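Appendix B. Chain record.
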Amino acid sequence: MHFYFAPQILQYDGTQLASLWAYRSFGLLGDSIVAFRGPCCIQFEHMVDLEDVRNQQPIYGNDMLHFIVEHFDHDLEKTILRQRLFITVVKEVLEEKGYKLVRSGDDLYYQERKLSISIATATPVSTIIHTALNISAENTPVPAIGLIELGWPAEEVAKLAEKIGLSYIKEMEGIQRARCKVKGVR
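Structure tokens predicted for this chain:
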């Protein structure tokens, strides 16, 4: 599995949830995690979560740390489980600095203020997860908190992204190893 942090500021608008986006954009062939920093503004026609569309709930933020995870299989339920694992990895990495976060499904909260957004979906050839963390909570449509407010220096966002990405890859490698080392039973 590949990890890449894009050094340029990129706006997340939902169109990145497309098969082979990491390959087309950065040359990453196969399972991958691409992280990048930038604003988030998703128009309703690009929203994957139809509950948000039906409720006319906008999704935007001025400054976020984004992760696009792509796995080349078609099992959406497995991908939702991976999404929950990913958000748990994020929680564990952030809590190393002493934060006490609460995970509810695929979202993270600090003192009832939302830190993250996340969605999982399927493409014709893969499944994709988008997870993003507020760096700043400015101009969010819900009570939110950002990494800066939690005391995470903005200049260390790339290091944080790498630590999260590599921790998730380690989990995926551990799952693969666990799957391959056991014998079947009758």
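Further analysis of this model is presented in Appendix C.
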